[in-house]
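Quick one, probably user error.
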């Protein structure tokens, strides 16, 4: 099963993608996590990406598309995957469609997690992330057992640089201009499913499972 998560930054794509990956036994592929791992590792790719990410801008398609296409050709992707944060532009979506078509494949579901901008700023301000294992928490809605410490790996949790309010506004503007048109793109492809992302996390997941099938 090949799944795309759509939605504004902070809509809950990563939270739900992790659950989907676990339930259906497919990898969770987050381009944001791949960039952050590269930044942490001090790679050239990471250095290039960081300048854009810190400002809430998208990393250019020339960097992002090749990176993602390489990843989905790895062995663990044979039974599908859930993409979180990719595609984010029409050229990214077109490249993915083309690369899959060359293998006789296509995306099965594009799930749009719908949350209005008004709810996004508080979600992002309360998000805490583990840069070691990629787990995410929220200080109010999904708190770790011990404040500031990752339940999964014990690393210190951080407030992402790009989750600060001044950057979140930029990210929302970029989302509306460049990413929201993908909702239409996948609707036309006949694979769009909408879920109400303002519900609690368990209910959002229940709605997604009813789309995907148990
Ligand atoms: P995205 O991957 O779309 O950027 P995340 O999954 O990281 O978003 O979620 C953003 C923040 O909101 C996180 O702190 C997360 O714990 C919290 N969150 C996710 N889903 C919900 C929800 N349904 N209700 C409340 N908070 C949520
Ligand atoms: P995320 O973890 O999905 O919120 O992504 C964090 C940041 O990484 C984004 O604000 C972008 O700067 C960058 N990024 C992640 N995925 C993409 C993508 N598909 N295209 C361009 N930039 C991306």
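Nope, works fine. Designed sequence:
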């Amino acid at each position: 099963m090949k799944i795309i998560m759509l939605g504004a930054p902070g809509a809950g794509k990563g939270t739900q993608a992790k659950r989907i990956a676990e339930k259906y036994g497919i990898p969770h592929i987050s381009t944001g996590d791949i960039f952050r791992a590269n930044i942490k590792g001090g790679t050239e790719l990471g250095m290039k990406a960081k300048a854009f990410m810190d400002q809430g801008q998208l990393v250019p398609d020339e960097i992002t598309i090749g990176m993602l296409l390489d990843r989905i050709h790895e062995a663990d992707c044979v039974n599908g995957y859930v993409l979180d944060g990719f595609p984010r532009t029409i050229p990214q979506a077109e490249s993915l469609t083309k690369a899959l078509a060359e293998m006789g494949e296509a995306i099965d579901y594009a799930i749009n997690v719908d949350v209005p901008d008004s709810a996004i700023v508080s979600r992002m301000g309360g998000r805490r992330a583990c840069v070691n294992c990629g787990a995410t928490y929220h200080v109010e809605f999904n708190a770790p057992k011990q404040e500031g410490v990752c339940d999964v790996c014990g690393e210190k949790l951080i407030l992402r640089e790009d989750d600060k309010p001044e950057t979140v506004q930029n990210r929302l503007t970029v989302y509306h201009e460049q990413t929201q048109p993908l909702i239409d793109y996948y609707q036309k492809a006949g694979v769009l499913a909408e879920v109400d992302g303002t519900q609690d996390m368990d209910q959002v997941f229940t709605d997604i499972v009813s789309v995907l099938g148990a």
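The CA atoms of residues 133 and 153 lie 7 Å apart.
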